[in-house]
């Protein structure tokens, strides 16, 4: 079985809009993240998704929660990667394997949260565009 190095893995995951963990703490960062992720909401009957600043404040909050869920999942994936590298290079000591299992469980929860947040954003955008 071929093992991907981090560059190959990051390139493969980029197809699904995974990025190395970055903190989208200011408005410019949030807008930049939204520009990338908003394309996930395009549909035949919705060829354009509004910029975050064009959305009502309540939907902007929902989008920020969605972007935060993505950031958390990315951070946890990076943590899993780091622990996996440690196991691969230094052996599978009990503490590291337990840390990896905990990080992996947290990552799986974060992915589920990201999916639920995505559903909320999709519904919010559809409602907003139907009402405009």
Number of helices: 4
Mean pLDDT across the residues is 83
Radius of gyration: 17 Å
Q: Looking at the structure, what is the overall shape?
A: elongated
Instruction: Report the helical percentage.
Output: 55-70%
Elements, N to C (H/E): HHHH
Describe the sheet with the most strands. Answer: none
Tally of DSSP β-strands: 0
Tell me the distance between the termini: 52 Å
Unreliable residue stretches: 20-24
User: How much strand content do the residues show?
Assistant: under 5%
Structural class: mainly alpha
What does this structure look like?
The chain is mainly α and 132 residues long. 70% of the residues lie in helices and 0% in strands. The chain contains 4 helices and no strands. It has helices spanning 6-14, 27-37, 57-90, 94-131. Helix 3 (57-90) packs antiparallel against helix 4 (94-131). The longest helix has 38 residues, at 94-131. It is elongated.
Summarize the SSE layout with pairings.
Blueprint: H1 6-14, H2 27-37, H3 57-90, H4 94-131
Helix pairs in contact: 3-4
């Amino acid at each position: 079985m071929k093992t991907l190095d981090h560059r190959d893995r990051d390139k493969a995951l980029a197809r699904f809009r995974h990025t190395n963990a970055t903190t989208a703490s200011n408005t410019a960062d949030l807008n930049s993240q939204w520009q990338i992720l908003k394309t996930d909401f395009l549909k035949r009957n919705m060829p354009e998704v509004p910029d975050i600043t064009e959305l009502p404040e309540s939907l902007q909050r929902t989008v920020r929660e969605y972007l935060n869920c993505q950031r958390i999942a990315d951070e946890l994936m990076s943590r899993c990667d780091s622990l996996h590298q440690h196991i691969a290079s230094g052996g599978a000591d009990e503490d590291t394997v337990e840390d990896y299992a905990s990080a992996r469980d947290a990552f799986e929860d974060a992915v589920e949260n990201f999916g639920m947040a995505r559903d909320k954003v999709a519904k919010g955008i559809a409602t907003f565009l139907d009402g405009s």
